Amino acid sequence: MRSLLIHVSKDSLSTALQAALKAISANSSSRVLSGIHIQAQAEGLTLTASNIRMTIEYKLPVKMDSMIVHKPGEIVVPACYFYEIIRKLDPGLIRLEIAETLILNIQSGYTQFRLCGMDTAEFPRIHYVDHPNTKKIRMKNTLLKQIFKHVVFAVSSLETRPVLTGVSLQIDNQNIRVVATDGIRLAQQVVENVEDYGVSPLNVIIPGSTLEDLLKIINDDEGSSTQIEIGQKQIRFISDGLRVQSALLEGTYPYVDNLIPQVYISEVIVKTERLLRVVERIAILAGESVTLGVYHSGILHLISRTADVGEAKEEIPLEYLEGEYFRVAFNGKYFRDILRAIDSDTLRIRFAGKERPLVIQPVDMTSSTLFLITPMRTQDGG
């Protein structure tokens, strides 16, 4: 099936391309995986991109004003060139046609491109084969985005411990728990009494890169939902016309409960947005370390200092203080990332000692969200 002729609106095609292209690897050693698979069938157009570990498929259904299939067919074309061509075309309907073997004609108004294609035989596909052990749950997109957005930033970027590049997902009856850590910071979200998914207890590790891409492209309308299909080695997200399939990470996620301090020396509450603005300001002069301290009642002090550059200091009034005064140094960038993941107007910081992680929690969120950041051993952290 090689002959192809369709008309598709630029807006619809651009939306589908932007979603699918997130699976394209910039450093792919495979020519076919640097391409995008275009397949037209009677029911619509499907665009697929893959990097072996993750495959994204986006379907555009037939619509009289934006998607018309005249002849079914398929081809793989270089993704970067195809996207740039479509992006620069004028608004309106675009004609895509395979007029000769492995050549895609792209026409919009008086503009025409001929793009060399590749054979589709070796291109990865998403195979929808139900395995007896596949677990299926349906989750509202608003909840899916909420639980993963709060933790995915904390995954490790280093491949030395592959499981830490992923997010641990645990589902037990009506409770969902997601955890991410890179060994320096930890983010945990627990949502209780959500819905009885009717599946046996579930414990898998999803690649952080897959979740980051998914959060950017799924619809977050109130009524939208996603079906999550979890097999032994793969996970699949199905939402509207979008299909995202990814390999799960193998291995055992580290036990993190013992990292969370249960006894605290000090506790403060502060306005989230104000603290974020201050951290972003003083981090301008920070190498890595930012020092946070409470030296007298009612004031939170933040200091950053870099040799041969300068220093910055700022004070923030506290909403609440209990316990001893304290001082601790931490990675300013990591602390900023945590603050950006907090939706609450105020947050709670708990200090358990110089050798223990700093605990950060939103104050006014119904779900249980918790962040840890390990202190840095510097002179300022004392």
UniProtKB/TrEMBL annotation:
DNA polymerase III beta sliding clamp central domain mapped to chain residues: 140-254
Domain DNA polymerase III beta sliding clamp C-terminal: 259-369
Broad class of the protein's primary localization: cytoplasm
CDD domains per UniProt: beta_clamp
SUPFAM superfamilies: DNA clamp
Subunit relationships: Forms a ring-shaped head-to-tail homodimer around DNA.
Family membership noted in the UniProt record: Belongs to the beta sliding clamp family.
Protein name (Swiss-Prot/TrEMBL): Beta sliding clamp
Protein species of origin: Paenibacillus odorifer
